[in-house]
């Protein structure tokens, strides 16, 4: 498995760049991970999604779907897509330090 350094911390990543261990993620890594997927800066909506995804994953043991982010996280679908364009579930999961969502090919 490969490794990368984010915010001064070296972590293992899979072949697509997702963190191998979500527990190694820190908030300081999120801006660097975001830049890797084409998001230049994180705003309040990004952080709302990131924090919801991490909390929901911790609680449920599964990476939340877009539908769950909308329904339980309270972020409208249009906002999710505008803040995480071209593959919102995958980008949000990567920035959140989680694995690749099951629905993503």
Describe it for me?
It is a single chain. With 105 residues, this protein is mainly alpha-helical. Helix content is 43%, strand content 10%. It contains 5 helices and 2 strands, in the order ββααααα. It has helices at residues 30-36, 44-60, 66-71, 77-83, 88-95, and strands at 2-6, 9-13. It has a two-stranded antiparallel ribbon. α1 runs antiparallel to α5 (88-95). The longest helix is centred in the middle third of the chain and has 17 residues, at 44-60. The protein is globular. 28% of the residues are buried. The model has no long low-confidence stretch (mean pLDDT 95).
Topology record:
Blueprint: E1 2-6, E2 9-13, H1 30-36, H2 44-60, H3 66-71, H4 77-83, H5 88-95
Antiparallel strand pairs: 1-2
Helix pairs in contact: 1-5
Low-confidence stretches: none
Please state the structural category: mainly alpha
From N to C, what is the helix and strand string?
A: EEHHHHH
**Strands ordered across the widest β-sheet:** 1-2
Distance between the termini: 20 Å
Tally of separate helices: 5
- Give me the oligomer status: single chain
Mean pLDDT level? 95
Task: Write down the Rg.
Answer: 13 Å
- Principal-axis shape equals globular
Helix content: 40-55%
Q: Biggest sheet, in brief?
A: 2 strands, antiparallel
How many strands in all?
2
In terms of DSSP E residues, the strand content is: 5-15%
